Amino acid sequence: MAITKQYLKTKPVCKVTFTLPAEDASKVAVVGDFNNWNPKGSALKKLKNGKFKGTFDLPKDNTYEFKYLVDGAYVNDGEADRYQWNDFAGTENGVLEL
């Protein structure tokens, strides 16, 4: 699992790239409060090496809770900036700090 952040000098945006090794998965999306937990439009592309990868422009100076949706199952990223308990979901979510 990997998260890379590239802050743009010309816009108040950070390009965030999510990479998840999931060779046996058929569909992976990243969901969070930046997209209302909706996997539509946030699918990651499967690469030849079995990893899923996608880059999204997110407003900087914000904190976002997120998870991966791997074939219908929610998975945390081991490299999240931190984790936060979510009462609604009854579990911890990864947190992305930009």
How would you characterize this protein structure?
There is one protein chain. The model has no long low-confidence stretch (mean pLDDT 95). The chain has no helices and 9 strands. The protein has a single domain, classed as Immunoglobulin-like. With 98 residues, the chain is mainly beta. Helices cover 0% and strands 55% of the residues.
Brief sketch in words of this structure:
Belongs to the 5'-AMP-activated protein kinase beta subunit family. The chain has strands at residues 2-7, 13-21, 28-32, 45-46, 51-59, 63-70, 73-75, 82-86, 91-97. The chain has 98 residues and is an all-beta fold.
Question: What are the SSEs and their pairings?
Answer:
Blueprint: E1 2-7, E2 13-21, E3 28-32, E4 45-46, E5 51-59, E6 63-70, E7 73-75, E8 82-86, E9 91-97
Q: Note the beta-strand portion.
A: over 45%
Classify the oligomer: single chain
Number of helices: 0
Report the CATH architecture.
Sandwich
- Mean of residue pLDDT values: 95
Reading off the top of the CATH hierarchy, the class is best stated as: Mainly Beta
- Helix/sheet category: mainly beta
Described by strand count, sense and barrel closure, the largest sheet is: 5 strands, antiparallel
CATH topology description: Immunoglobulin-like
Q: Please count the beta strands (DSSP E, at least 2 residues each).
A: 9
Question: What would you give as the CATH superfamily?
Answer: Immunoglobulins
Helical fraction: under 10%
- Low-confidence runs: none
Q: What order do the SSEs take from the amino end to the carboxyl end, as H and E?
A: EEEEEEEEE
Pfam family, one: AMPK1_CBM
Domain CBM20: 8-98
Keywords: Kinase, Transferase
Family: Belongs to the 5'-AMP-activated protein kinase beta subunit family.
